[in-house]
Amino acid sequence: MIEKQTRRERLRAEATQEIKKIALELMSEGGPDAISLRAIAREMGMTPSALYGYFPTRDDLITTLIVDVYSSLLDVAEAARDGHPAGDPAGRVLAWASAVRDWALANPEGFRLIYGDPVPGYQPPTDGPAADLARRACEDLVGLVAMIWSHAPSTRPGTDFAWSDFAPQLAAHVREAFPDLPPAAVALALRIWGRMHGLLSLEIYGHLRFQTPHPGKLYGAEMRELIKSLGLTPPE
């Protein structure tokens, strides 16, 4: 039987959602520095001490925001990717890239939170849900490369990469999750990530608004060129 929320629980959940919404709005208007519990309390007509009952510190709030944002992004991207069969690496890569852009346009504040300027003074946790989501994102991206690696061996980059070229934590995670992939595959994953996020970041931060009225067309062309460079045929 589904238990109903008490009125107190419902009001607390609504207040928590409002706190997170205001935090992202403050960041959108004033940058990462603008996120503060005192400013949020002022917006909500609460005392700062009352807000501490929801989030004891600013970092607790930011971590919660990151978990929400990251979960939303990965759920959308994974669903788009999985709409294409495993034997269609080009379709899966393009679906992932397109879904990330669609999500970012709908959630620009969230995109800025996880891929923009870091929040001053914030120390991300090394374990817990936020760290788990970062590992999940890493596995998703390297998983795309692992699929490409098996379908288009002729486009594999040179082998002049060693595990020491990457952060120890990243190297250890990839080697555990994908024991057959060499370090060059990690380099390829980072290059793909860079190409996906390059134009998208320019668009989200408004740097293309005077250059083109059709940034989506530009992004689509770049993703198709990326797929071709991987030795794959882009979908129609």
Describe the structure.
The structure is a single chain. The protein has 236 residues and is mainly alpha-helical. Helices cover 66% and strands 0% of the residues. The protein is built from 10 helices and no strands. The chain has helices at residues 7-30, 37-44, 48-51, 58-81, 89-106, 108-115, 129-151, 168-177, 183-204, 215-229. Helix 4 (58-81) crosses helix 6 (108-115), helix 4 (58-81) packs parallel to helix 7 (129-151) and helix 9 packs antiparallel against helix 10. The longest helix is centred in the first third of the chain and has 24 residues, at 7-30. It is globular, with a radius of gyration of 20 Å. The mean pLDDT is 90.
Radius of gyration computed on alpha carbons: 20 Å
Q: How many helices in DSSP terms?
A: 10
Residues in helices, as a percent range: 55-70%
Largest beta-sheet details: none
How many DSSP-defined strands?
Answer: 0
Low-confidence stretches: none
Overall pLDDT level: 90
Classify the beta-strand content into a percent band: under 5%
- Span of the ends, CA to CA: 48 Å
Morphology: globular
Reading the helices and strands in chain order gives HHHHHHHHHH
Structural class: mainly alpha
Question: What is the topological layout?
Answer:
Blueprint (H helix, E strand, L loop, with lengths): L6 H24 L6 H8 L3 H4 L6 H24 L7 H18 L1 H8 L13 H23 L16 H10 L5 H22 L10 H15 L7
Helix pairs in contact: 1-2, 1-6, 4-5, 4-6, 4-7, 5-6, 5-7, 5-10, 7-8, 7-9, 9-10
